[in-house]
Design goal:
With about 800 residues, this protein is an alpha+beta fold. The protein contains 32 helices and 21 strands. Strand 3 and strand 4 form a beta hairpin.
Length: about 800
């Protein structure tokens, strides 16, 4: 039985027979699915004729379909499909039909009757009905009849909580409020603030703000504004005044940021950020920020966006809508400033959908400026007026100076150092002080972005001319702080050499001057793969001699080559298989390193972490499985697995698995380095307090991992320790034995595993649990040749503590030692 038969059956109305026949036939010719066809109704020829007919005719057909739904029940097969087709067509008709007061109350009554007839129906026309009534209210005002109708609908929503019902409830509250002209719902904190503000405005100011709110709300449903929308928004912002608009937006963004923080940190599952109406208005107001000159409002928007993208468990990003609006706003700013802000926020994002929307904005900016995305992001790093590794700002007779390398702020008055911020600056220069502090935050936030971009240049195969590179890195006041500590590979014709800039000259690892560099020389970031151990050790000695701390491992970078076992397995590596990892930590780290991965839970959610290598037309996969058991702690409150187990690493070209020996050496090494990092950081074996903390399988794994053979990253750590320890005061108490740093204390002798950091005590290899927080850093200043290996610092801290085990005061440690 089709829709035509149902509509024209026992309760049929022959007046609609021909029209229904045309609509049904045309809809079914496009799709059998009632849900997918809904979006196409407006394009059907028969529907267009209906839309062009009289409003009274549409009303009659609408209420005919209402009655059909009340008397029908969704069943299996064609009847069910027809029922849904009728329901979807009602939603379409409500969009194109004008309702009077009587119609509005009938629609409200229909919702009540529909609920009683179909108490378990999830897909309902409530929202479409409320929107249609809302159009009537905007045109004719809120009459007592319509008010009663809305109130009766509101009560019907009790117990319903899907997104359409929530939106309908919020719209009813909005239409019931006294002042609809403001276009802002007064039923959330921001809305209440706006209503209070509007009441205090002059008549002229009120009119200007309301016009802007109306225009902002007109963007509803759009992810980016049209050029027409932006062109019309400009004069509205001008009318208010750029300074007044920016000031008010700063205040509102601060208010909203507090709410975002509360929602992100709350544990009660509440989600009360903004009403639907207000969410759309704020989105439009954020777009308007792109129409004014760069200033503090954009710094405030920067902070706001980072919080808007924060995840609320079980919900996702709290407000991706306004976060992405901020990204679009930044794309409207001068290219250097705008893209630097986008890149800084992007660094903190883990959600793949959000990342795609941000990448799309970056690509559009790049295309407008005829650049690649890599070139754009490099070009747009601001210099902040930094001079000789310091950012400063003058406040009358005083000056604030931020030393970027030391991460310290000092205050000067007429050249003399002050202990703290001078009182007169807090009193008289609060706005300038805020700008100073915000700039420091921006500098600190951008440095990790620059580090990550440079480290990713290995697999991106980035190459510059010496002239380009000097402009982007060597002569740039901010990026040079990173680039100066790295080794660069220069080549032209038959000349090839690696060098660092030291004491006003370019030098190689043997301190020989490089004097053939000019604008046409090519530059790449040096990678140790393919170089002899003599070359690599030479650079390591160079760093130590000149006390250079690299921003990430370069001279000490792990190199991974194919093993005999991998040559035998041919298409996959089991080198990092059979590990137990903490899933949430693993997911965060994979995304930080540019991999794609979604958390797995006890639903059908299996997925494989993968890494795209577009420059090589390859991809890599690291197979993982849910570590499922029925014991406590297997899943969290959201049903997400706490642990996963690892399996094979594979490489693919055009979706086909590759032989490992066909994978370029640099690609293989860098991908395996990432996988080693994932295991080394997120394995439960690194938890010193784990012992017997899980099921039998996990506990067995923990014992095996804690003292296993060293991985490549652990081997590098051992090499660093062997070069550092002889120069430290604890050297007489230390020695090395394959996997262990051995420390002879006053009470016992300790074996610290250089892969996990876990400790055994002689003579019977008793386990000693020292959590990192208990191992206080030594007062001795220890030079480490690179940043980023937290376990290296932890092992050194433990070694210093255990060398003087007779001075330990922590009772939990003392009891273990004296046991």
């Amino acid at each position: 039985m089709g829709l035509l038969d149902i509509l024209t059956g026992n309760r049929g109305n022959t007046e609609f027979k021909n029209l229904t026949q045309q609509i049904t036939d045309e809809a079914n010719s496009r799709s059998r699915d009632a849900y997918s066809i809904f979006g196409a109704y407006g394009s059907l020829d028969s529907s267009k004729r209906l839309a062009e007919g009289t409003n009274d005719y549409r009303r009659k057909f609408l209420f005919f379909l209402f009655e059909f739904l009340i008397d029908s029940k969704p069943k299996q097969g064609s009847w069910r499909d027809s029922w849904h087709h009728a329901l979807k067509f009602i939603q379409y008709l409500l969009k194109i039909t004008e309702l009077n007061d009587t119609d509005a109350i009938e629609c409200a009554q229909f919702v009540q009757r529909f609920r009683k007839a179909n108490p378990y129906a999830y897909d309902t026309p409530d929202l479409a009905v409320v929107e249609a009534i809302g159009r009537s209210v905007r045109k004719n005002g809120l009459t007592p009849t319509v008010r009663n109708g809305l109130l009766s609908m509101q009560h019907e929503f009790d117990g319903y909580a899907n997104s359409a019902h929530i939106k309908a409830q919020e719209m009813i509250l909005f239409f019931l409020q006294e002042d609809l002209e403001v276009e802002v719902s007064e039923h959330d904190r921001w809305g209440q603030n706006v209503v209070s503000f509007i009441k205090e405005c002059t008549v002229e100011e009120r009119e200007s703000w309301i016009k802007l709110f109306v225009h902002a709300k007109a963007s509803a449903g759009k992810s980016t504004p049209s050029q027409k929308w932006l062109k019309e928004a400009g004069p509205l912002v001008e009318k208010i005044g750029h300074i007044k608009f920016a000031s008010k937006m700063e205040e509102w963004l601060a208010l909203l940021r507090v709410q975002l923080q509360e929602i992100h940190k709350s544990k009660d599952g509440r989600y009360d950020f903004l009403r639907t109406e207000n969410h759309e208005v704020i989105k439009g107001l954020i777009w308007c920020c792109g129409l004014i000159a760069p200033g503090t409002v954009h710094a405030s928007l920067d902070e706001y966006a980072a919080w808007a993208y924060k995840k609320k468990p079980g919900v996702g990003p709290i407000s991706a809508k306004t976060g992405t609006a901020a990204m679009f706003t930044f794309s409207m700013l001068p290219v250097r400033e705008g893209v630097s802000r986008i890149a800084k926020v992007k660094m903190k994002i883990r959600n793949n959908t959000v990342l795609k929307s941000i990448d799309k904005i970056i690509r559009e900016v790049a295309e407008r400026n005829d650049l690649s995305t890599d070139e754009l992001e490099e070009l747009c790093v601001p210099d902040f007026g930094i001079h000789e590794k310091e950012y400063s700002m003058t406040f009358g007779e005083c000056r604030g100076v931020y030393n970027i390398n030391l991460n310290e702020v000092r205050w000067e008055r007429n050249g003399k150092i002050q202990k703290s911020v001078p009182a007169e600056i807090k009193a008289s220069n609060a706005s300038e002080l805020k700008t100073f502090k915000n700039t420091i935050k921006e500098i600190d936030a951008l440095l990790p972005v620059i580090k990550m971009r440079l480290e990713q240049s290995y697999l991106a195969q980035r190459e510059w001319t010496f002239k380009q590179w000097k402009s982007l890195y060597f002569d740039h006041p901010l990026t040079s702080l990173i680039a100066d500590k790295l080794i660069w590979h220069f080549f032209k014709d038959n000349h090839k050499q690696q060098g660092m800039f030291l004491d006003d000259a370019w030098a190689d690892a043997s301190d020989n001057t490089i004097d053939w560099l000019n604008d046409d020389v090519k530059v790449q970031l040096w990678h140790p793969i393919g170089f002899s151990s003599h070359d690599i050790v030479g650079w390591r000695n160079f760093l130590t001699k000149n006390r250079i701390v690299q921003p990430f491992k370069q001279a000490y970078r792990e190199v991974y080559i194919l093993t005999d076992a991998e040559l035998r397995t041919d298409t996959y590596s089991n080198r990092f298989a059979a590990h137990v990892l903490r899933q949430h930590q693993f997911a965060a780290l994979t995304r930080q390193r540019g991999w794609h991965y979604q958390l797995m839970g006890n639903w059908d959610s299996h997925n494989t972490p993968y890494f795209d290598l577009p420059k090589w037309q390859l991809s890599a996969e690291f197979l993982v499985n849910a570590e499922w058991n029925d014991g406590p702690g297997a899943v969290n409150d959201m049903g997400i697995f706490n642990y996963i187990t690892t399996d094979q690493v594979r490489f693919l070209r055009q979706g086909q698995t590759m032989n490992l020996y066909d994978v370029p050496a640099l690609v293989f090494s860098e991908v395996m380095r990432d996988v080693d990092l994932f295991v080394g950081v997120t394995s439960i074996g690194n938890d010193p307090a784990w012992q017997d903390g899980g099921d039998n399988f996990q506990n067995t794994y923990w014992r095996q991992y804690s003292f296993q053979e060293l991985s490549e990253s652990a081997k590098v750590r051992s090499q660093v320790l062997e070069s550092l320890i002889p120069n430290l005061k604890i050297a007489p108490t230390c020695s090395f034995d394959k996997k262990f740093l051995i420390v002879k204390g006053k009470i016992r002798t300790y074996k610290i595993h250089m892969g996990s950091g876990n400790i055994l005590m002689e003579p019977d290899d008793q386990y000693l649990c020292i959590v990192p927080a208990s191992a206080k850093a030594s007062k001795e200043k220890v030079f480490l040749p690179f940043e980023g290996d937290s376990l290296l610092s932890i092992i050194l801290s433990k070694a210093f503590m255990l060398a003087e085990d007779d001075k330990i005061t922590d009772q939990t440690i003392i009891r273990q030692i004296e046991r």
